Amino acid sequence: MSAIERILIACCDDAHVLAHGARLVAGIRRAGLRRLAHERERFCEELSLAGRTLHHTPRAHGSWAGFIRGALFDARRLATGPNAGDVIVGCRKSQRRVEAVFADALEGSWPKEVLDVLTAQHEAIAGARDVLVGMQYG
Question: How many domains does the chain have?
Answer without folding.
Answer: 1
